[in-house]
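The records we work with from here on pair a chain with its fold. These numbers are not coordinates but entries in a learned vocabulary of local backbone shapes. To see the layout at work, look at the sequence and tokens printed below:
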Amino acid sequence: MIRHIVMFKLKEFQTPAEKEAKMREIKERLEALKDKIDVLRMIRVDFNCNPEETWDIILTTELATLEDVNTYANHPEHVAVAKGIIGPVKADRACVDYEVA
């Protein structure tokens, strides 16, 4: 099994409430992919609670193979969220994929 972890740093928002609303929208849209992309075994989105750290959002997914990671990454539903919802507010992104025994 492959665990696919992505961290996002968001651009600055005018207010904390605006940032929180966008983060919740991202969480809802990403987690909804579980019912739309059959290779996803698990998907979870969490928010950083430590203001001293760099990243705002962490996405954790589990898939059977690296090929499934590619299928997920290129699925139209995922691309719509990544480009349409996250892209306009993303300042930075980091990713790691690793095998889970």
Observations:
- The first helix runs from residue 16 to 31.
- Residues 5 and 81 are 16 Å apart (CA to CA).
